[in-house]
Structures are given as C-alpha cells and as structure tokens.
C-alpha cells in the first residue's frame, strides 16, 4: 500500500485529507515541527498547525509545548482504538436514531411481501440465522460449506435444537461436516449423491416449518451469492411442499450421520 492509498483509507475512516497526510508523515518521521512536516508533505505550513491540533483533539497525536511546537503520533494501537471507538459511537448513534423511526408494527410489511432477494454471503448467512431462530417445528438446511460454518449459524441451529426444533442437514455424499454438528445428537444429517447435481450454481437452501424458505445461487465472482426468500406466504408453502417432496425421493439412498 502506498502513502496515497493509506491517505484514502484514513479518509474513509473519517479523517480529512490534511489530517491523514500529517498523521502518516508523523508516523514515518517519528516527530517533527510544523516546518519539518510541511517539508515532507504537501500540507501548507499554516495548515499543519490547525491540522495537528485537530489530530490532538481526536487523540491521534501529542503536542510538546515548546518553541517551536513539536508534534508526535500516539502508538498505532492507540490510534486504532480511537478509530474503533469513533466508529462504534457513530454506529450506535445512527442506529439508535433509525430504531426510533421504525413503526410500531416492526417488520410486518416485510412479511406481507411474497418474495425478497438478498446478495452477499454475510448478509445471506445472517438472514438464514434469523429465519432459523424463528422456527417453531422443523429446519432443513443444505450447503456445500458445512465444514466451517458461520458461528452465528451454528449458534442459531444449536439454539433451535435446545428449543426442541427438529434440525436436519442435507449434504452431498462424502461431504465434510463440522464436528460440532456431527456430534450433536439432535441434528440429523442426510447424505445423498443427488444433492446439487442438477444445478451447478445452486448454493444453499433453508426450509423452516414448511412455510419459510431461502434458496441461494452463486455466479462466477468469489462472493457473488444471491438468494431469494419468502416467509409465511402461499408461495413459500408451495415451494416448501415441492422441495420436501423431492427431498423425500432422494433420501431413499441416504445414510444418517455417516457418508
């Protein structure tokens, strides 16, 4: 990474251009006066003073009260902590405000829609975990990645088991599965050679209570996973019934708990 790239990254984290340049320069030279800083960066000397005091107020540098003043960066760990605290404070403030804007009915509008789409592995995993956490009777989940699942997903399925929900994993024959699921006596695992063989782009499937589903596919890009899902709708019920029907056909050749 170059100085210019580091400057752009610090700007994305909330620093101004001058603040980023001065801080990077101080990290490089250790400490310096306004004249010394201005000589190695394109920040005008008068602006160095203003920028340095702004950085001090943010907790990024300390100022030696001498004549001339000498500026010194805090440790990188301390600077990182300052950015994290700033981000968390801003995040909490804006989401507190957004929560105050939500109608009292919550997400009812979401449930009234037929089908929703969502893109990105992390967002899809979070949606799967949320839908699984709302299960009342059964959960069926299939994925080509069952060996290193998201901790949120593991927690959601384990919590479902503790509530007495019937949890079933659908895997391809020979597929490696995380030991935490293998060792969980409350999770049934069905292996079949026919899983995903009809569509090379099929990625993950979730069926909850026979009236909630999520189906994802993956394109050519590394994180180009897209999913459609529907909850407690006629469309979801029909999709679940058809899928479970096909599932019952292919499980005639399966073995439970061992590939």
Shape: elongated
Order of helices and strands: HHHHEEHHEHEHEHEEEEH
CATH architecture of the largest domain: 2-Layer Sandwich
pLDDT < 50 runs, ≥5 residues: 252-259
- Strand fraction equals 15-25%
Radius of gyration: 27 Å
Task: Give the spatial strand order of the biggest sheet.
Answer: 3-9-8-7-4-5-6
CATH-assigned fold name of the largest domain? Endonuclease, Chain A
Overall mean pLDDT stands at: 81
What structural class do helix, strand and pairing data support? alpha+beta
The CATH class of the largest domain is Alpha Beta
Instruction: Please summarize the sheet with the most strands.
Output: 7 strands, mixed
Number of helices: 10
CATH evolutionary superfamily of the largest domain: Endonuclease Chain A
Helix share, percent: 40-55%
Secondary structure: number of strands: 9
- Distance between termini? 46 Å
What's the domain count?
Answer: 2
Which structural traits does this protein have?
7-stranded mixed beta sheet, disordered C terminus, two-stranded antiparallel sheet, WH_DNA-bd_sf, 47% helix, 259 residues, Arc Repressor Mutant, subunit A, Endonuclease, Chain A, elongated, 9 strands, Tscrpt_reg_TrmB_N, alpha+beta
Overview in brief:
Helix content is 47%, strand content 20%.
């Amino acid at each position: 990474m170059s100085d210019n790239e580091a400057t752009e990254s610090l700007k994305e984290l909330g620093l101004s251009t001058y603040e980023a340049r001065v801080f990077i320069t101080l990290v490089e030279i250790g400490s310096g006066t306004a004249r010394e800083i201005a000589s190695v960066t394109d920040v005008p000397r008068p602006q160095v003073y203003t920028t340095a005091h702004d950085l001090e107020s943010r907790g990024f540098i300390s100022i030696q009260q001498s004549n001339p003043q000498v500026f010194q960066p805090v440790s990188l760990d301390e600077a990182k902590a300052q950015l994290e605290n700033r981000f968390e404070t801003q995040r909490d403030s804006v989401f507190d405000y957004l929560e105050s804007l939500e109608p009292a009915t919550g997400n009812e509008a979401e449930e009234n829609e037929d089908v929703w789409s969502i893109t990105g592995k992390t967002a899809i995993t979070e949606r799967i975990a949320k839908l699984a956490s709302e299960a009342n009777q059964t959960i069926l989940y299939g994925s080509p990645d069952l060996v290193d699942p998201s901790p949120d997903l593991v927690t959601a399925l384990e919590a479902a088991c503790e509530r007495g929900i019937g949890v079933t994993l659908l895997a391809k024959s020979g597929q490696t599965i995380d030991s935490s699921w293998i060792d969980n006596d409350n999770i049934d695992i069905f292996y079949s050679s026919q899983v995903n063989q009809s569509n090379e782009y099929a990625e993950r499937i979730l069926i909850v209570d026979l009236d909630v589903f999520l189906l994802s596919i993956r394109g050519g890009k590394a994180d180009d996973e897209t999913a459609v899902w529907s909850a407690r709708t006629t469309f979801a019920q029909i999709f679940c019934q058809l899928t479970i029907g096909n599932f019952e056909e292919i499980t005639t050749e399966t073995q439970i708990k061992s590939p």
